[in-house]
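Lecture 7, part 2: worked example. A protein chain together with manganese (II) ion.
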Amino acid sequence: MGFDFLPEVAAALAANEPVVALESTVITHGLPYPQNVETAVSMEAAVREGGATPATIAIIQGRIHIGLTAEQLEYLGTRAGTAVRKCSRRDIPLAVAGGEDGATTVAGTMILAHQAGIPIFATGGIGGVHRGHPFDVSADLAELGRTPVTVVSSGAKSILDLPATREVLETNGVPVIGYGSDTMAAFFSRSSGLPVDVRLDTPEAVAAVIRAHQASSLQSGILVTVPVPEADAFDPDAAEAAIAQATREADEAGIHGPASTPWLLRRVVELTEGRSLQANVALLRNNGRTAGQIAQALARM
Ligand code: PSU
Ligand code: MN
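Predicted complex, written out as structure tokens:
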């Protein structure tokens, strides 16, 4: 597939300088406008603080873009919701052939990042197994099992069944690294209580695992989970109450499939009167910076 590279990203890749991929579904389906565009911009800045060049990935009018301009971020942000196709693995050819706008999920971004030669990707939360719907398993988990990209996230959001999500990661052979933590991060809150496979405390230590993974030609991904900064964490009980209510309402309204995650995310923000949004924005920034540092350490090895 032909890609449209942002010149700055193409130059960084050609010079073997560190680049971090960013997804676009969080912009169109994860956060409300205008916080979505503000957050996308500040996440790119955080990647730069970490020492890498950001490359936000999206499909615009059927063209695959590796790195977006400020105008393109705004374009996608203002189309948040229905007009933009949420692109997981299966959706990429549909959006391209249809000349559509498409926002890439964790799975979609991993595929395109890998093809573009970018080994690290930062986001907020990965998809997982939905509560009460054990067969609604995000394609993100399968992608982590088959595409060699390291995903830096705050785990999976607690709207999901986290123990089941943890099990599927294991089934798919995905190493789960706790960054500065012995447990998997739980998005708004710092810990899910679920064990990680290894705790690592520095960008260099994570880069060493990525190197070993590359050297052993394992065609799978790596998940690094970074707890939300202490000061921005959202009270786990308040989060759980909002999630339980949102999940009940979604079941009553018959919301399912790809509509589930965006619907639940929006409803939780409403129910917490935006307090969950602060945690969400803070962890996105923090993950961008951390991924930038890891990419920088990897490039120096
Ligand atoms: N989790 C979040 N915010 C998000 C998403 C997940 O906290 O915006 C998005 C990501 O793009 C993820 C997708 O890949 O939702 C998962 O959707 P699904 O469950 O339909 O696979
Ligand atoms: Mn699903």
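The longest strand covers residues 53-60. The radius of gyration is 17 Å. Keep this in mind for problem set question 3.
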